[in-house]
Amino acid sequence: TMKNPVPQAASLLLEKLLLLVHVRPLSAGSGGEPPPPAPSYYDTSCFKRGDLLEVPRTLFIHFGIYLGENRVAHLMPDILPALTGDRRQIQQVVTNKRLILGVITKMASIRVDTVEDFAYGGSILVNHMDRLFEDQVLGSEEAARRAEKLVGATAYSLLWNNCEHFVTYCRYGAPVSFQTDKFCETVKMIIRDQRSVLASVLVGLASIVCLGLAPSTTLPTIFIPFFLWMAG
Asked: Is Transmembrane found in the keyword set (predicted)?
């Protein structure tokens, strides 16, 4: 049997939490700005309008709806749409600070980016979720139009309104998130454990080791699991 499962689960929770909200640990002195996407080329001729695009990462998958002409609609946590109506500012690459504040304030933006900016150098799967929904797949044009209608500021919730909820609503008519369900099971396992206090301390210490002492990154990492527990 596995010994002392809580520290391992807490470490997994921290890493998965960061990735689910698209936060990447940054080195000291980076100023909170994400590194530029690695140079890459995507053959968009194989994509059709209304396709559901998936970009697998280490512990999460990012989702978007292809709109044609090298454009992808996708949902990201972002505080900026709540602060300004300047589309040029909003359309700039979302920094970690903007993203984390979006998570905390439950604000997001459904934005349109190029395939390169959306995929960030990762591999792309096309309509990989269709097999899970069988006869529920909507027409490609209907999926694209749904995505286009939703572009703009929106509420954000890791549990109820993330990038996976957005694309499944557009393509299948039902907002669901399989990866969030798995994540929540991990959170509940830790919180329900009689050693949850120890787990919380480990999450905090791990966040400090990974991200440094900056409260803008450490505090949200510690508190978000408890917000999830309260929401569930």
From this structure: yes
